[in-house]
């Protein structure tokens, strides 16, 4: 019973943390909490350890490196190794359909293809050569993207919907965010690959969770475990309930149940992020625009902090032109002619 309680606490904590970060990221409170935590940290931890941690965090999250790509591949390889070693063989013995068992491998191949494309594709780097062409792609809204603005780092005119990435040290056309898992920015030219990669990654985790659950349920039905009885702490016979059944399966197949719990949590987190990414694509927004935009529903939100004399400016998304046109812009992006042959690195 203890491991079930801990697992449920872990799941609830992870989901609440993700929701709170998404809500607080629109306000200044998250920044204040981080600064407060950093001050407490500086009072407790020795200076030498603080410097080492800062250097490590700067290397991981503020420089281009292959750490998270390697970690991603290691985690994916570990999960598929466990699936092949533990579940695939058992399911074959129980005469599961081979199509269902091979579906995660098909999704893995597609996922790795689009993962590679996301990593290697130029996201839409703005240079002196294509600067004027990109300036004509999107209309300036004069709120988030003022006309005639210049990048202080690149010394280039900033096209609408562009942003300078401090990690890659270049301006990106239709900048969404910098993804450490692919070691690349997500921009106009690789957003389509990123969405398909995210979709197949979520589908592969969900498929593994479904196959693992079907195996355990089939095992319970075949062995008639749900009809068994057990002796409780007081010595009284009790009929098998769902909690005791899950605990029994965990003790009998610990690696399979642990794998099931991992891919379930991963499916929920990836599924939530996928829904958010599809919402942005359907409304023709980027993560950067969503984060910076002062939306109308936030004007009445009590957690939003503003100077008392400031007049609220409601950001209006002028780039959304209907679902199909928005999706077409994602999957068939406008590419300056001079850059078409240099799109792939």
TrEMBL record:
<keyword id="KW-0472">Membrane</keyword>
<dbReference type="GO" id="GO:0072659">
    <property type="term" value="P:protein localization to plasma membrane"/>
</dbReference>
<keyword id="KW-1133">Transmembrane helix</keyword>
<keyword id="KW-0333">Golgi apparatus</keyword>
<keyword id="KW-0256">Endoplasmic reticulum</keyword>
<dbReference type="GO" id="GO:0030336">
    <property type="term" value="P:negative regulation of cell migration"/>
</dbReference>
<keyword id="KW-0812">Transmembrane</keyword>
<feature type="domain" description="Palmitoyltransferase DHHC">
    <location>
        <begin position="149"/>
        <end position="292"/>
    </location>
</feature>
<dbReference type="GO" id="GO:0019706">
    <property type="term" value="F:protein-cysteine S-palmitoyltransferase activity"/>
</dbReference>
<keyword id="KW-1003">Cell membrane</keyword>
<keyword id="KW-0012">Acyltransferase</keyword>
<dbReference type="InterPro" id="IPR001594">
    <property type="entry name" value="Palmitoyltrfase_DHHC"/>
</dbReference>
<keyword id="KW-0564">Palmitate</keyword>
<dbReference type="GO" id="GO:0006612">
    <property type="term" value="P:protein targeting to membrane"/>
</dbReference>
<dbReference type="GO" id="GO:0030335">
    <property type="term" value="P:positive regulation of cell migration"/>
</dbReference>
<feature type="transmembrane region" description="Helical">
    <location>
        <begin position="65"/>
        <end position="85"/>
    </location>
</feature>
<keyword id="KW-0449">Lipoprotein</keyword>
<comment type="similarity">
    <text>Belongs to the DHHC palmitoyltransferase family.</text>
</comment>
<dbReference type="GO" id="GO:0000139">
    <property type="term" value="C:Golgi membrane"/>
</dbReference>
<dbReference type="GO" id="GO:0005886">
    <property type="term" value="C:plasma membrane"/>
</dbReference>
<dbReference type="Pfam" id="PF01529">
    <property type="entry name" value="DHHC"/>
</dbReference>
<feature type="transmembrane region" description="Helical">
    <location>
        <begin position="256"/>
        <end position="282"/>
    </location>
</feature>
<protein>
    <recommendedName>
        <fullName>Palmitoyltransferase</fullName>
        <ecNumber>2.3.1.225</ecNumber>
    </recommendedName>
</protein>
<dbReference type="InterPro" id="IPR039859">
    <property type="entry name" value="PFA4/ZDH16/20/ERF2-like"/>
</dbReference>
<feature type="transmembrane region" description="Helical">
    <location>
        <begin position="194"/>
        <end position="221"/>
    </location>
</feature>
<feature type="transmembrane region" description="Helical">
    <location>
        <begin position="97"/>
        <end position="120"/>
    </location>
</feature>
<dbReference type="GO" id="GO:0002753">
    <property type="term" value="P:cytoplasmic pattern recognition receptor signaling pathway"/>
</dbReference>
<feature type="transmembrane region" description="Helical">
    <location>
        <begin position="6"/>
        <end position="24"/>
    </location>
</feature>
<dbReference type="GO" id="GO:0005789">
    <property type="term" value="C:endoplasmic reticulum membrane"/>
</dbReference>
<keyword id="KW-0808">Transferase</keyword>
């Amino acid at each position: 019973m203890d491991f079930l309680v801990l697992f449920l606490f872990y799941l609830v904590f992870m989901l609440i943390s993700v929701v709170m970060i998404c809500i607080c990221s629109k306000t200044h409170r998250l920044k204040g909490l981080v600064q407060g935590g950093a001050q407490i940290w500086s009072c407790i931890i020795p200076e030498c350890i603080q410097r080492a941690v800062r250097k490590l965090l700067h290397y991981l999250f503020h420089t281009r490196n292959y750490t998270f790509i390697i970690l991603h591949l290691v985690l994916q390889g570990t999960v598929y190794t466990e699936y092949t070693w533990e579940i695939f063989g058992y399911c074959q013995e129980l005469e599961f359909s081979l199509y269902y068992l091979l579906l995660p491998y098909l999704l893995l191949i597609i996922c790795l293809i689009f993962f590679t494309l996301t990593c290697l594709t130029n996201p839409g780097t703005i240079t002196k050569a294509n600067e004027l062409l990109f300036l004509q792609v999107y209309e300036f809204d004069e709120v988030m993207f003022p006309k005639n603005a210049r990048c202080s780092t690149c010394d280039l005119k900033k096209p609408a919907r562009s942003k300078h990435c401090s990690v890659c040290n270049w301006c990106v056309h239709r900048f969404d965010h910098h993804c450490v898992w692919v070691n690349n920015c997500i921009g106009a030219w690789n957003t389509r690959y990123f969405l398909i990669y995210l979709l197949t990654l979520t589908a592969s985790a969900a498929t593994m969770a479904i196959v693992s659950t079907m195996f355990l349920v089939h095992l319970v039905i075949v062995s008639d475990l749900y009809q068994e009885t057990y002796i409780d702490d007081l010595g009284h016979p009790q009929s098998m309930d769902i909690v005791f059944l899950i605990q029994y399966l965990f003790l009998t197949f610990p690696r399979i149940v642990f794998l099931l719990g991992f891919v379930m949590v991963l499916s929920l987190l990836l599924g939530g992020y996928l829904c958010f990414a599809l919402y942005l694509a359907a409304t023709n927004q980027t993560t950067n625009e969503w984060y910076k935009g002062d939306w109308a529903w936030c004007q009445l939100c009590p957690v939003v902090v503003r100077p008392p004399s400031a007049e609220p400016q409601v950001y209006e998304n002028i780039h959304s032109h209907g679902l199909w046109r928005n999706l077409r812009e994602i999957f068939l992006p406008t590419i300056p002619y001079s850059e078409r042959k240099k799109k792939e690195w």
